Every structure is written in C-alpha cells, then in structure tokens.
Amino acid sequence: MKGQVFLILAVIIIVTVVLLKTSLNIASVIETKNYLESGFERMEFQNLRDEIPKVIQISCNQTNIAGNVNDFVRFARNSFSSRAMDLNGILVETVHPTIAASTDTTMNVTIYNFLGNKLKFLNLSLNGTEKTFSEIDDDRILDTTFPINAPSSQNYTLWIFYNTSTANSSQSFTIPIEIGKGKFVGFFDLRLLSSRSENRDNFIETATLP
C-alpha cells in the first residue's frame, strides 16, 4: 500500500513539474509574441509617419493638397481599424498662395478630427483673428479661412485650443510667410493604439508650393 502511495505521489509530482514547465513555456511564447507584435506596430506607425511627407510632396502641384493628405490618413485609419488598431488624432493644415508684400491674401485652414471623440469646442487664433466652432463629430473635416497681410517675410503663429468629453488640448505652430512664395504647413498629432502598445507622435511638415 505504501509503495502505491509513493508511486502515486511521484506521478503527481512529475505531472506537476511538467505542467509547470509547460505553463512557463506558454507564458514565454505569449510574451515573445506580444513583443514582436508591438515592434511590428511601431514599425507600421513609423511607416505612416514617413509616408505623410511623401504625400505632401506629391500633392504640391495639385489644388487640393490638404484633401489628399486627409484622404491618405483616413485610408490608413480604416486599414488599422480592420486589424484591431485605432489610429486617432487631429490634423491642422494651412495653405496660402504666393504672397505679395502688403497685399490682402486668404489663408485656407483645414481641421480633420479623428480623435475618436466629438470636438465639443474648437478655437483657432491667428495673429489676433479668432474663430470658434463647436460640435465637430469624429471623422469630420472643417474648412475655414483667415486673412493675412504681410509687408515683408515674417512668421505667423496659429494657436489651437479644443476640448472633447475626455480631454482639453492647447497647441500652436509657426507658419512662415515668405514674400513671393506660397506654402502648405501641416500640424499632425497621431496616436496608434492597440491591446499591446501605444505609439504617438506630433510633428509639423512644411512645403513650398510651385
């Protein structure tokens, strides 16, 4: 009887050790898998970051440069969404034609909200001129204009303040005004979220229009 007990105990110990070892191996495999997938997501996010300037350069000869950029980001967002990743953020893009000294010129400003939340309030301020907007749904684009009149080359600053149901944000970026040139300036705030990782970057891209 004692021999049977010892045999049973031995089997239990061996099974326990095997199960423990197997469990540790599974945990290691899962950890490695998550690490590799997180690295792949970082690479995909960086690829998106690298492609945006290329889209801008390709679109410089076209009339709807901001629209082309927004369409590209929207396409990327849908692609990520199909793979259980959320691309969220906000784009603020300005386009102005060739500037003549001391001449009234219209600057176009485009805001693409894809924060995943409605913009409850948005305030834009450019060199003393302010505009406010409200209730801008997710995946919606707002177009507006600002007057500019520069006697010589100088920098303008566009201030952006917005709030959603979960957060407030205040940002600003410089718009270089050069006499004899037109420019595109885009502010990009991007976040890629998944169950494994979060990647974020905000940056400014500037292009001189022909």
Could you walk me through the main structural features you see in this protein, from its secondary elements to its overall organization?
The chain has 210 residues and is α+β, with helices and mostly antiparallel strands. The protein has one domain (27-209): Immunoglobulins (Immunoglobulin-like, Sandwich), CATH 2.60.40.10. Helix content is 36%, strand content 43%. It contains two helices and nine strands. It has helices at residues 2-59, 65-81, and strands at 86-96, 105-114, 119-126, 129-136, 140-148, 154-163, 168-177, 182-193, 198-209. Strands 5-2-1-8-9 form a five-stranded antiparallel sheet, with helices on one face. It has a four-stranded antiparallel sheet with strand order 4-3-6-7, with no helix packed on it. A hairpin with a 2-residue loop joins strand 3 (119-126) and strand 4 (129-136). Helix 1 runs antiparallel to helix 2. The longest helix has 58 residues, at 2-59. It is elongated. Mean pLDDT is 88; it is low at 1-5.
